[in-house]
Amino acid sequence: MASHLKSMLLPNGRTELCNSVLPALLDCISDIAKSLRESQHVSQAGTTNAFGDSQLNVDIAAENLIRTALAKCPSVLTASSEEEPVERPASDGRTVDDVSPTSEKYTVAFDPLDGSSIIAPNWTVGTIIGIWDGASAIHQQPSEKQIGAVLGIYGPRTTAIIALRVPGSEPCCLEIGVGGSGTQDHQVIRSNVQLADPPFTTRYFAPANLRAAAESENYMRLITKYMEKKYTLRYSGGLVPDVVHALVKGHGVYLSPVTGASEAKLRRLYELFPIALIVECAGGKAIDPVDGEDILSRPLENCDETAGLVCGTAEEVDIAKSALLHA
Amino acid sequence: MASHLKSMLLPNGRTELCNSVLPALLDCISDIAKSLRESQHVSQAGTTNAFGDSQLNVDIAAENLIRTALAKCPSVLTASSEEEPVERPASDGRTVDDVSPTSEKYTVAFDPLDGSSIIAPNWTVGTIIGIWDGASAIHQQPSEKQIGAVLGIYGPRTTAIIALRVPGSEPCCLEIGVGGSGTQDHQVIRSNVQLADPPFTTRYFAPANLRAAAESENYMRLITKYMEKKYTLRYSGGLVPDVVHALVKGHGVYLSPVTGASEAKLRRLYELFPIALIVECAGGKAIDPVDGEDILSRPLENCDETAGLVCGTAEEVDIAKSALLHA
């Protein structure tokens, strides 16, 4: 794995990213998978009495594993997470003035364990990570400064998607098989994850926030059209598995619209930005369903901003955009 | 685990079931989980060139693990599977006249790995197993002769659902946390899996074969009603995770209707019967959407019969039944 990335990035001086940050994150994903596998009692989260506690423990374990790993990467200056949405030094006392051996400085923003509602029934869940150039993600141009994103996918196997868009290099999107015992185990499953071009043999749709269709004629009409046109439904309710489904199948559209009665729920920094980078690197689009703008076009004002999402196959995103923005 | 089951069943002389068949099946589920975890290259099944082969290998591995385990259980006379839908002796030379130490005789019918379409994107998949009294499942009354069913769920964890309805004992439905290293690792997560009674805070629906809605006004109208009434959508496309979601959340309705243009796809022996027993033992219903009859009411004529399915929370199954059978 490392050699593949290195060959693409080392000419641009991304030694720390390839040799330290990405391997550390993949090892974290392996460790989180192990922690989940051993947390049998989270399934009690579906019951009345134990709700909350066990589930929270898995979240916290994932959070701590990632924070500990980032603290050991000298180039990671700043970290923040969906569990604690404030940017702070990745390691006590580390400051913007500290210079790593290669002058690389990164900010990492992550959602340690996305999909808490489907942990109890033992459905696939995931981790979402964005990597930014510099000491902060706030007030930065996301399309330029977020140079990498990683998804961890915890299902029957443990897999990861890595997307990189480093200035001066071609964007890339890889699928990694994450091993059980450290970096040497990871293997590249597909070195070029790309959404397919038309024609499509099967069209997939993943309608999140479907209850919003009760209030939005546009959303209801769009869903009805998918049904009439015989799109195939796959919707787990986990952002990571739902997006990864499209990437692996080569086609799909994920929709999480915002209506008057249903607020935007997805965090821009911890969910939308990394997902958008990955989808774009795979040749797709990711837009805000409220104004149709690219998710990555507007800088962040603060860490806990939220928005809706339409992403996936470019042609499908355009169709959904017209349908949802239709006056 | 074993002690819990034993205390419920041993009074009825089910020594082999509790001490041999169920432990062997749980160990199989643990082994299949391990095999899946190590099969990173199945994700290539989503690509053009490698489609089929790798995926098939995982299916065959699961099939072989279960057949090998059953051959070692002296009380299992007959086995058949979705991969090879013909009843034959579970072990070479074993016959109906062989009598196990406790005179128990079982037929086991199984789908080794259900959900092949979602293996590549690393979504949760499962194993489905039915256990019958006697030397055959054919021409037997399913509601009486299928006395047990087991689901293996391969997700971030490995879990199992066991339902037993042995004459003379109370029906039961358990959730098991399956360990990584043999029987001693398994633990009971919930000893009484039950669908909830109304009122429901969240209502879930899982509409399979949704493309049939394009041809069935009744199905389209029912789906639209779920959306208008703000049911929550969860549909992975895997029968096992979809049904287990309802069991763990305590509410849900799974629908796989049959229309003129879309044939019945679910195998009665390998999928519908075990799922129906589990749902009934959890207090729910499982019916054939064509005639509204219980799935378990009609005997099997041959091993590869198929049908549709509506199952889950009893009240929801009744609502769906009226809607789908509406003239």
Q: Characteristics of this structure?
A:
alpha+beta, eight-stranded mixed beta sheet, five-stranded mixed beta sheet, D-Maltodextrin-Binding Protein, domain 2, Fructose-1,6-Bisphosphatase, Chain A, domain 1, 327 residues
Q: What would you note in describing this structure?
A:
The structure is a homodimer of 327-residue chains. The first copy, chain A, is of the alpha+beta class. Chain A folds into two domains: 2-190, Fructose-1,6-Bisphosphatase, Chain A, domain 1; 204-325, D-Maltodextrin-Binding Protein, domain 2 (3-Layer(aba) Sandwich). In chain A, 31% of the residues lie in helices and 24% in strands. The first copy, chain A, has eight helices and 15 strands. Chain A has helices at residues 2-9, 15-37, 53-71, 142-145, 217-228, 239-249, 268-281, 314-325, and strands at 76-81, 84-89, 106-114, 125-133, 146-154, 158-164, 172-177, 187-190, 204-207, 232-233, 253-256, 266-267, 285-287, 306-307, 309-312. In chain A, the strands form three sheets. An eight-stranded mixed beta sheet of chain A has the order 2-1-3-4-5-6-7-8, sandwiched between helices. A five-stranded mixed beta sheet of chain A has the order 10-9-11-15-13, sandwiched between helices. In chain A, strand 1 (76-81) and strand 2 form a beta hairpin. In chain A, helix 1 runs antiparallel to helix 2 and helix 2 packs antiparallel against helix 3. Chain A starts with a helix and ends with a helix. Chains A, B: Residues 20-168 form the Fructose-1-6-bisphosphatase class I N-terminal domain.
